[in-house]
Amino acid sequence: MTIIIQSQEKPPIHSFSPIQQDIYRALDSSPQQFFYDSAFVFEFELLLREKLIQAAYQLHESKAEFAPFDVSRFNPQIWTKTKYGYVLKPYILPSDAIRDVFHNSHLYAFECSTAIVLLFYKSVLDSISISRFNTLFQGLLVWDWNYDQDLGIDTRIGRDFIPGDVVYFYNPDFEHPIWTGENAVYLGNDRYFGHGVGLESERGMIEALNTLRKPGSTQDAYLISQHSRLSYKYLSQFARRVPHQNYDSSIFQLL
């Protein structure tokens, strides 16, 4: 047993959605121990991981294109391009800006690390109070790994991946710098999503990156032993509690 909830029993797995059940099983079978102050924080982690996975599928199905910074695009009605990245216009709500990436995806083109940060924002937006999201994430600057510290991204060594973790496939013999590697969301069951490559198994990701090596290279790309996660405990305070029974996900109300 690796899920430990302070002074409480674990909620029954059958009360969660199929994706959350997969996450629950991965946490519970992990060699790591996961400590939670309450069942609320535990369930919030399941919810936020699920929302990240769902956002990854949404981006995969969108019309957003893959592009390096010099030919990148963001909706000019919402974002201003600077040498550092795309800055949110001051009269636009952060929640509206993040939604626009998915609703008007044909207006966007960016690379894989920017995609991951946008997915983090989208998953948080779908998991916490909208008013709190707009308070926390004012003045957004988006490109590469520029992100607001309230996301609390934590990167650790190890390959004990939980669905909803972000991982990195390294391509040491890349031909073009944009293909140094691929940031990807681990979806579970040997499935990964990376903007630019798409939905693939671990082997499929490696084979795709191998086609983007220098001519004559024989060194394979590979999945490195690290993973990145959001600060679930910190972010859980911004989800509003409502009465619930049987650990149903309706304990979260997004306002």
Structure notes:
The chain is of the alpha+beta class and 255 residues long. It is globular, with a radius of gyration of 19 Å. The strands form 6 sheets. It has a 5-stranded antiparallel beta sheet, sandwiched between helices. The protein has a 3-stranded antiparallel beta sheet with strand order 4-5-7. Helix 2 (39-60) packs across helix 4 (112-125) and helix 3 (94-103) crosses helix 4. The two termini are 35 Å apart. Helix content is 31%, strand content 21%.
How are the secondary structure elements laid out?
Elements: E1 3-5, H1 18-28, E2 34-36, H2 39-60, E3 65-66, E4 79-82, E5 85-88, H3 94-103, E6 109-110, H4 112-125, H5 130-136, E7 141-142, E8 154-157, E9 166-170, E10 181-188, E11 191-194, E12 198-200, H6 202-210, E13 222-223, E14 226-229, H7 232-236, E15 240-241, E16 252-253
Parallel strand pairs: 1-2, 3-6
Antiparallel strand pairs: 4-5, 5-7, 8-14, 9-10, 9-13, 10-11, 11-12, 15-16
Helix pairs in contact: 1-2, 2-4, 3-4
